[in-house]
Amino acid sequence: MIVPFEDLALLNTPYLPVLKEELHLVVAHQNLILGDAVNQLEEKLAQSTQCAHAIGLSSGTTALTLILKALQVRDTRKEVVVPALTCFPVVAAILDAGLTPIFVDVEPDRWLLDPEAVKLACKPDTLALVAVHLYGNVCDLQSLSAWCRSKGIHLIEDCAQAQGAEYMGKPAGSFGIASSFSFYPTKILGALGDAGAVVTNDDSLAEEVKKLRTYGSTERGPYHYAGINARMDTLQAAFLLAKWSNLESVMQHKRLLSEVYRKHLPIVCKRPKLIFNAQDTPHLFPVLVPNRDKVRALLEKAGIGTMMHYPRIPPLEPLFSGKHHSADFPIATAIAQSVLSLPFSAIHSEEQILYVCNQMQEVLDRVG
Ligand SMILES: Cc1ncc(COP(=O)(O)O)c(C=O)c1O
Prior knowledge:
Blueprint: H1 8-12, H2 16-29, H3 36-48, E1 53-57, H4 60-72, E2 79-83, H5 88-96, E3 100-104, H6 115-121, E4 126-132, H7 141-151, E5 154-158, E6 166-167, E7 170-171, E8 178-182, E9 196-200, H8 203-213, H9 234-244, H10 247-264, E10 278-279, E11 285-288, H11 292-301, H12 330-338, E12 339-342, H13 350-367
Parallel strand pairs: 2-3, 2-4, 4-5, 5-8
Antiparallel strand pairs: 1-9, 6-7, 6-10, 8-9, 11-12
Helix pairs in contact: 2-9, 3-9, 4-5, 4-8, 10-13, 11-13
The structure holds pyridoxal-5'-phosphate.
C-alpha cells in the first residue's frame, strides 16, 4: 500500500469546480488584490477567533513580522522570547523585524513553551513573547498571559498550526495582543499558494498592520514610515472561503484518523500531551520514535511518507554561529532528534492509517 505524507492534488481537486466559478468572478470584478473575497475571509476569521479585526496578508511569516513591526511603532524594547522548538519562519520574522530572538526550552510532556523557562528569559528589554502553538495543540495560555500581563510584555500567538483550537472554551488567537495565521497549502486551511492573516482586538495595532501591508499607508500616503507589500490575493481568499465551508467535515475525518492512531500505534511512540482545559485541532500527528532516521527509511520502503517537525532547532542554525548550544535546550534537542510526523490528512483513509500503525510495529521490531 502507498501512503503519501500528503497529496495536494488529491486534496484540492474536489474544490476545482467552485474555484473555477470564483476565478470567473474575480476576473470580472477586476479587484485582484484585497478584493471582496479578502474582506469576507477577514470577517469570517475575525468571527471565528472572537477578535475585532482580521487582516489578510501574503503569508504567516509576514503576519508575524508585521505584528512585531507594528508593536515597535510604540515601543522601543528589542527582545522577543520564543520556543527553541519551532519552525525557522518564526525566527526569520523576528530578525526581519529588527529584533533579537531569545530562545527558551519547551516542556517535556507537551513540547510547547515552558512557562518557567519563559519567566527566566524575560528581561527589561523583552518586547514580546511568541507563543507558538505547534501540531494543533495550544500552549499554557493561562500562565503565559498572566505572566505577560504582570510584566507588561506583549503576548503574540502564532496560530499557523492551531486554527480552530481552543483554550478554556476560547479560540486560540484571542488571548494575545495579536495573533498570526498561515494558510500555506499544507496548513489546517490551505490556500493554492501563500497566504496568511493577523487577528487582534487592538484597534491601533490593526491600523498599523494595515498600513504596513501596503508600503506604509492605506491611502497612498502620506508615508510616515516604510511598510512592505504583504497583501493577500483575492483568488487565494476565494479559494480559502470555498475550502472553509468544508473544514468541519475535514476535521471530523481527521479526528477519526487520530483515533485509529491512538488505538493501534505501538505504545513506544510517544505523543505530546494536551494541556488541561485545552481543545486541540487535528493538524499534524507527530510521535517520538527510537532510531528515528532508520525507522523513517524503512517506512519509506514500505510506501509510507513521513516528515519531521522539526529535525533541527533554530538556535543551533549556522546563522547564530555557535552562540547557542544543544545543552541549553535539552528537551527541544531530544525531541528534534526523535520526532517523526506520520501521514495525517483529509486524503487518508482509516485503512491507510491502520497500515501505518502495523508497519510501524514491524519496523520497530526490526530496528530493535
Ligand atoms: C508555526 C508556524 N509559524 C509560522 C509559519 C510561517 O507561515 P508561512 O509559511 O505562511 O509563512 C509556519 C508555517 O510554515 C508555521 O508552521
